[in-house]
Specification:
Layout lengths: L6 H6 L7 E4 L4 H14 L4 E6 L2 H10 L3 E4 L2 H14 L4 H23 L5 H21 L3 H7 L5 H7 L4
Parallel strand pairs: 1-2, 2-3
Helix pairs in contact: 2-3, 3-5, 4-5, 5-6
């Protein structure tokens, strides 16, 4: 692995001829330095970045990277789906809840990125967006709550998955 925050090493790695730069550095600041360097010297590169956390994602959005993937986001959604299934929710309902959350959270992240340096506004917007999401999830299908009440028996799910979820 090369230190991509060094211009000479980006040249040596062939950044001039490359189409894509993937940045998956565990240090947010080093990641941002690498992106800034690449955007300045190799503006033709599409940059795909692994975001360490939400604040890092805000910085990446601000920098206009081609794409980003939050480090734990998809695994957290997957865990949520599995939790709902273990509680007895149908697979389609569990997936739908995750999809609603994914779409809403990604849109909210982009809205909040514009104000991420203003802590007061960010917290206020976050509270509003959380309340909105709660309302969306509750109104998606009012029988979701009825299904939750019936969700005590996980025998069928365990049989279906061989006790492995």
């Amino acid at each position: 692995m090369i230190d991509a925050s060094r211009l000479d090493l980006l040249h040596t790695a062939g950044a001039e001829a490359a189409k894509l730069l993937i940045v998956a550095i565990d240090d947010a600041e080093k990641s941002l330095q690498t992106i800034d360097l690449a955007q300045k010297h190799f503006p033709h590169l599409d940059i795909l970045v692994r975001a360490i956390d939400r604040r890092h994602a805000y910085e990446l959005i601000h920098r206009g990277v081609a794409a980003l993937e939050r480090e734990t986001f998809e695994s957290a959604l997957s865990m949520g789906v599995k939790a709902l299934r273990l509680l007895g929710f149908r697979a389609d309902r569990s997936q739908r809840a995750a999809q609603i959350f994914r779409q809403y959270d990604l849109a909210a992240m982009h809205k909040m990125a514009a104000m991420h340096k203003d802590e007061r506004r960010l917290v206020a917007r976050s509270r509003r967006l959380t309340a909105d999401l709660e309302e969306i999830l509750q109104s998606d299908d009012h029988d979701f709550a009825e299904e939750a009440e019936r969700a005590g028996d996980t025998t069928a799910l365990r049989a279906e998955t061989g006790d492995r979820i």
